[in-house]
Structures are given as C-alpha cells and as structure tokens.
Design goal:
By secondary structure, the chain is mainly β. It contains two helices and eight strands; from the N terminus they run ββββββαβαβ. The strands form three sheets. It has a four-stranded mixed sheet with strand order 4-5-6-7, with helices on one face. It has a two-stranded antiparallel sheet with strand order 1-2. A hairpin with a 2-residue loop joins strand 1 and strand 2 (8-12). The relative contact order is 0.31.
Length: 107
C-alpha cells in the first residue's frame, strides 16, 4: 500500500489482500466511511481503524491477528477482500485520510 502526498510517497507498507475465493476488488474508488474501534464481520473481528473504500464491505484496516503481511500468502491466508494493514501504518494512514479521498486498488 502506498499513500502519496503531492505526488511524493508518504507511506509504504505491505498489506494482505483477499484470498483467491474472496478477492479484493480492483479499480478506482474513494473512502466512503471511516471509524475507530469498530467490529467487522458481525461482531467477530474488532479493529482499531477502519476505512471503507467501496461503499459495501471492503476496506483498509488493522489486523491484530496477522503476523505477516504482503508476499503471496493471500492465496491461502488472505482476507475476505479487505486490505489488512499493520497497525502503525494504518494509524498514520487513517489520520492523514479524508472522506472522499481517491483510492486506487491494484495487484
């Protein structure tokens, strides 16, 4: 995941995206909703920072249960479509993001 500020790289962090059976949607979208201290998946998964990026059920969030991010582990140990992001990176991202901000998702 990269975040740019005035065309300069501001944040770079590996993330884990959707597994093969629940892939992350690719394309240009925006931040629709932001929240802190929220449960996802019907009160199963609590996260510190949540940024919904497709208006439905995909977003960028921390994943306390994950030890490794990035690489190709998403094939067998990926998310349900979200971008699981290390805590420190998603915290910085959250506090430097606005509603409506453009998001480009690709692999």
């Amino acid at each position: 995941l990269y975040m740019y500020n005035d065309e300069e790289s501001y944040i770079y962090t590996p993330v884990t995206t959707g597994k093969d059976s629940t892939p992350t949607n690719i394309g240009i979208t925006k931040v629709h909703y932001m929240a802190t201290d929220i449960y996802l998946n019907g009160d199963r998964d609590w996260v510190n920072f949540w940024m919904n990026i497709n208006g439905y059920n995909e977003g960028i969030h921390d994943a306390w249960w994950r030890q490794v991010y990035g690489e190709d582990s998403y094939h067998w140990n990926g998310s349900n479509g979200c971008q699981n992001t290390p805590y420190a990176a998603v915290k910085t991202l959250y506090y430097n993001t606005e509603l409506g901000q453009r998001v480009i998702v690709h692999r």
